[in-house]
Amino acid sequence: MSALVGAISKDFTFNPVMEKEENKDGEPTRECDDSEKPDDEGREDDEDDEAEEDGKPKSEKELENKELELGPQFSLKEQLEKDKDDESLRRWKEQLLGTVDFSAVGESNEPEVRIQSLSILCKDRPDLVFAIPLAANSKDRLFTLKEGSRYHLKFSFVVSNNIVSGLKYIHTVWKTGIKVDNTRIMLGTFSPQQEPYTYELEEETTPSGMFARGSYSARSKFIDDDRKCYLDFSYTFDIQKNWPSAS
Predict the structure, then answer these.
(1) Is the pTM of this model over 0.70?
(2) What is the pLDDT of residue 140?
(3) What would the mean pLDDT of 127-146 be, rounded to a whole number?
(4) Number of domains composing the chain
C-alpha cells in the first residue's frame, strides 16, 4: 500500500521493507518539519534514506552545497522579458518552457505548489476524496480499506509563480513501529498554470492475511529538487477483512 500505505502511498502496496522509485513525466512552500511525523518510530531510518537519496552521504552533500556558488536568480517573468528583442532566443525560451499560463506567473523567484486533494479510487466502490489540508486530527483513522483490494491513488495540485523542478512524492508507512513501505515517485517538472494538474499512480493491491490486518501510521511529503517541502502530513488508516459498513 505504497501510496496509501504512505500518504495513500504510491497507490497502496504493502510489501515488507520495499522501496520504489518510478520515473514519470497546498499550502505555501515551507521547510519539512520532522516534528510532524506520526511517531518517533522509524524517524532516523527515514531521514537517512532521504539524506542518501542521491547516493551520496549527507556530509558530502553539505560540503558540495557550501562550495557551490549560484548566480543571481530571476523570476519567470524576468527570464521571459530578458532578450525579448532577440527572436532566436525568444523562440528557444518558448520551446524550452512550453505553454506557460502567464496569469499564474508572479514576481516571486520561488515556485508555489498547492496540493488540493488526495483520492483513493477502488473499482465498484465510491471514491475516497480528501481535501487538503485534512480537517481530521492526524491521530484519527483517516480511512479503512479491505484486504486484497485493488486501488489507484490520485492527487491534484496547482503550480504558480515559477517552474517547479523535480517534484517528488514520498510516502512512508509503519505498522507496530516497523517500517513496512517507503515509496519515492518522481512526478516531473511543471510550469505555472491556473488549472490544476492531476496525477494518477499505477494500480496496486492492499496486502491480505491475518498479519496484514490492523492499523498503520503513514507520512506523506511533496518536495522538489531543492528539497523544499510543499506538503508534509501524517495520518493513520486500517486494513480489515471487509469494507466498513456504510454509516
Answers:
(1) no
(2) 75
(3) 83
(4) 2
